[in-house]
Amino acid sequence: MKSLRGVRSSQAFSCGLLMSLLASACGGSSPAASAPDKGAGAGSKIGANAAGKPEKGLVAMITPSRLFPDLVGERGVVAYENGHKRVLIDRMRIIAHEDGSLERAAELLPVGAVTSIALPTRLGGGFLFHAQTGGGTQLWRASTWLGKLQPLVTLSAVASEIVPGFDRLYVRFAANNRLAALDPASGEAMSLAPLPPAAAYGSLQFADGWRAVIDTDLRGPLATFDAGSTWRPVGIRERVTAIPAIGGDPTILVQGGQYRIDARGGVTFRAEAPRSGEPEDSELSPGRPPGPFGRRPLRAAVEDGWPDGSNTAVVARGGALARVSLTDGAVLAMAEQAFPERQASCHAVRLGPGFGFVCGEREGATSIYAFEPPLAMRPVMRFKRPRFVASSGNGALVIRGTCSDEATLLEGTRAYCVLRDGGKTRELRVKGEQLGFERIVALSDGREVVLVPPRAGSSGQLTILQGTSMSSVALRLPAEPRSVAKELKNGMWLEGFEEREPGVLSGWVEAGGPILGLRISLDGNVKAGDVRHDPAGAVLSGRFGLSVGEGGRAAESTDGGMTWNVFDLPERDEDDEPGSKTRACGPVGCAIKGWIRVGWGKPAVADDLEPASSPPAFYLPMRASTAIGLECEATGSVTPPPPPVKGKIEPIPSRPTILSYGSFGRRRELTPQWIPFRNMPPPALQTDEVGVDQGAQYELITMRAYAWGKKGADWTRAGRWLIRFDDRFDPGGGVRSSSPSVSLWSDEAMAADALGATSYGLSWNVALDPSGRAALVSACRSSICSLYGVSDGQPVLPLRDAAGRTNVFQRPFSGGAVRTGETWFFITQGPSYDTVTLWRSDLGVSRQVETFYRPTQARYTPPEPPRLVRRALGGSLGILFGSSPEPGDRAGNFYVVPVDPESGEVSEAIQLTRRDLGGQVPERCAPGQDGWVVDAALDVTPAIELVGGYASLDSVELRMRIDPGLACVEAMAARMDGTFSKPSGAPPAGPPSAREGDAGGLPLAVTERSSGRRWVFRCSKEGASTAEPEARQPGF
Q: What pLDDT digit, counting tens, does each position of 14-51 carry?
């Protein structure tokens, strides 16, 4: 401010050219203030809690500090029970009571998604907490919601769900939807029992210690009423969306309704399920309506209250005055009619020897009250219009405007009313060219100070008023560091300068980002504090300041910004979550976005908000798995070279024949192939015939289709086609061929397109019947396939639906087709990713027998594809699956679910044998021996030692017949990289017999991957079994 001129009046005296003073009512009483309602203060209801009594003397600030999350809405609410909410938010466990009080646990959970589970008494009660951290899952237990966290275990995989069972915890892994079981006390691995055997599990609900309902793969929901000793089907074929407990009973939710299962096994259907799928008895309680201090009295006390003890603060709002516990935010005492302004907002300030409240209504009156113990408010001043009131930090207030509502001001004049102890007032009037930049501070010795910040090349000025005298000094800004001097000259000197100690002023400067505190002595010397850079903005109030900073690295100041103490704020769950709209700091603490920090300084407890101890890593020593050991001796090769061509044959034109356009619109030419299949020559062509062929020569089960006929003729009359496929288990060669069949296509162009010789995107696959003499061949474009039943020596059988359509099927799963008599059964993907469909085809006419729902979380993590099996003797049908290994084991068990071939109804799963055969080499199957015929690889690859030669074998499979506890081998198959080499001088092997290995050995057919040549070995079980080394359990 360049100049201030005095203003004369009948009640004023000259103070020179800078200031005019009005001493009206100097030493007198304050303007009349409205008295509070009768009964206010001592006559109002006061809580009987002993903590409601104030301490003697003024409490300047609260220390040490305690941190609470700012609870807004229903974020983080886990459950309502017994009049309070359990909250899990920002890594903290909170209990929020209906009266607004809060309780907080001392430990912090790790960063990330944390889930809590209430454990039933059968598991010891208390709570389980699990968190996703670093690609794994950590688990803790606590006896109560706020109890000390006991580390349980750290799993190396992410758990999507943990369910308390009868006597153990079931963990579902997000990557593969599989289950594992843990001991709830030690975290050690347990078996999945007493769950029913299944390839996969969906929703699990354990209602009590005896009842449970489990959604299982293929069989659907199963229920038990004897703690898992027996399981029985519920009889529900709809897709299960969830199984919550409603009214204490397991309830199966399906589309359009729900099935409730009572304790006696009764199943009741209700047409409409709850909207969100949540249990009816867990709906959120609305709680009681908030009082004048809102749902969080603690936040009100921090924002607008003043401490009257080491653990309590007094706050005024909405006509009420309350004493709030700073330990938990409970209202300890309340005067409901402490002052008349029911719509006013009040803020506590230091007033005289104690404290008081400045209350204002929007566009209404401004009132100043003094606090009177134990819980009352005494009116001090009242103004009809809104006023700006600043505290001088020593009990005096500076009010912008005249001390009386009736007083008038000359144009270009600003008045200030100084209110001191005892209600004494003093009015100051200023006039100048740049009003509004001055800062008025009332000193504790009765003087006033007018501070003019640096402006436009001026260093600023300090004017001291004492009675009728006035003295001015220029501000002396620090020269170093230069950056601080620049900020002081160019920054905004904020309102609210105070007398921090006798004769020393203090305030804040904001420089467009950086903030710093000042101390100014009455001789004009300016001292700057540490500069704090905070892009998020700091909260400043008098001597108190809090800078949130970045990355949770906050800082506080209780000396007006001269020094800053750094502390860490816990990382929030959701930084973008909207919080309370207000931010404030004061002697009680600070309320900022997401947090309520009660007090200043170090935490009240030394290890408060320390992260919980990390649980130990899960480790499960694996029992050594024994691989079956075999010694195999080569008996010769059974794949002869191609026979010489007899006679002159011209199988294809010398020039390429143009057959059709490709599927992408580009004209394609048929490149002549007509190649052998595993060195078996293709069908012979006459000189006037043309042939097309295509197949899958690099798949595990190879095949090739041939179609031929006279060029230009009607192939439906003169054309033929056949399909050849390979039984890789057959030591006698294994090539199977249909008989030549009437062409399905009218000419060579249509045939070439159907076989994929001229079009893109067609793939051939084979599902082999375990007899090895029949196969279901699929020709697929994208996910739509044409299916052909092929039996050795019989015509090709195209499959069609009831409407006669052929190109309408999904590709059968690998190992998903069997032939019983003249009927084909096959299993394919269903209409959605979580369904599979069982088909039956009689003489080529196919129908859907049943659709099974599979419990899966996403199309990217489906369970293992089901395998269709049949009995060696008779027509019994079943679906084979493998169970998860027991803890410490590498291999699980084979199970079969018998299926009714007419209705598709499934029966109880039957346990067969271990998936590694227990390391025991089975016997050769005897003629007429029954069992479920299975082509499969073992969980532990057999150890094969070749006698008299060298070769690299892989893809070892066994064709077995298995029953509960029994297994025999029909044949074995493997693939070979390169060729089988014998030492020089070794005698040549003789030709194999039709049934190689009859003399006490197991036949092994090995196919060279590159040439298709097949070798036959005779294997004995005299080789020692080998044990694989101990390793860590995968998936944990």
A: 233 344 443 333 333 344 443 334 333 333 332 333 34
CATH value at residue 131: 2.40.10
pLDDT value of position 48 = 33
Signed CA dihedral, 949, 954, 959, 961: sign only:
positive
Together in a domain, 114 and 255: no
Q: Which amino acid is at 304?
A: D
The DSSP secondary-structure symbol of 123 reads G
Give, in order, the Cα–Cα distances in Å from 237 to each of 220, 850, 855, 904: 7, 10, 13, 12
Q: Same domain for 109 and 239? A: no
Nearby residues of 146 by Cβ (< 8 Å), 6 or more positions away: 93, 95, 103, 104, 105
Coil, strand or helix: which one is 216? Answer: strand
Task: Tell me 992's DSSP state.
Answer: P
Cβ contact 704:697 at 8 Å:
yes
- Residue 697 shares a structural domain with residue 723: yes
Nearest alpha carbon to residue 61 among 234, 397, 244, 306? 306
Which distant-in-sequence residues (6+ apart) come within 8 Å of 898 by Cβ?
Answer: 876, 877, 878, 906, 907, 910
Per-residue pLDDT reduced to its tens digit, 461-498: 999 999 888 999 999 999 888 888 888 888 999 999 99
Per-residue confidence (pLDDT) for residue 576, from 0 to 100: 60
CB 413 within 8 A of CB 430: yes
Grouping H, G, I as helix, E, B as strand and the rest as coil, residue 907 is coil
Is residue 651 a part of any domain in this protein?
A: yes
- Number of structural domains, the chain? 3
834 with 728, same domain? yes
What pLDDT was estimated at residue 282?
Answer: 42
List the beta bridge partners of residue 426: 418
What integer is the mean pLDDT of 73-101? 90
Residues 762 and 854 in one domain: yes
Tokens of 645: 């061509």
pLDDT of residue 763: 93
Q: Indicate if 768 and 841 belong to the same structural domain.
A: yes
Per the CB < 8 A criterion, the answer to whether 204 and 214 are in contact is yes
* Cis peptide bond prior to 641, omega within 30° of 0: no
Residue 586 bridge partners (DSSP): 589
> Which positions ≥6 away from 467 have C-beta within 8 Å?
none
- C-alpha 611/C-alpha 131 separation (Å) is 13
Return the SS3 of 428.
strand
| The two three-digit tokens of residue 90, written as one number | 């920002």
Q: Who's near 664: CB < 8 A, 6+ residues apart? A: 760
Instruction: Decide if 224 is inside a domain.
Output: yes
Q: Model confidence at 57, in pLDDT bands (50, 70, 90)?
A: confident
Summarize pLDDT for 640-687 with one digit per residue, the tens. 655 554 444 444 443 444 443 333 444 445 555 799 998 789 999 998
- Residue 36 falls within a domain, yes or no? no
pLDDT tens-digit series, residues 845-860: 999 999 999 987 666 5
Mean pLDDT of the chain: 85
Contact by Cβ (8 Å): 499, 543: no
Same domain as 817, residue 767: yes
Amino acid at 585: C
Token pair recorded at residue 547: 């800078």
Query: Tokens 């052929």 appear where?
Result: 806
Local structure of 1018: helix, strand or coil: strand
Q: Residue 124's domain spans which residues?
A: 105-193
Mark whether 118 and 188 lie in a shared domain.
yes
Triad 229, 230, 232: Cα angle to 5°: 155
Q: Which of 253, 283, 313 lies at the terminal end of a domain, its last residue?
A: 283
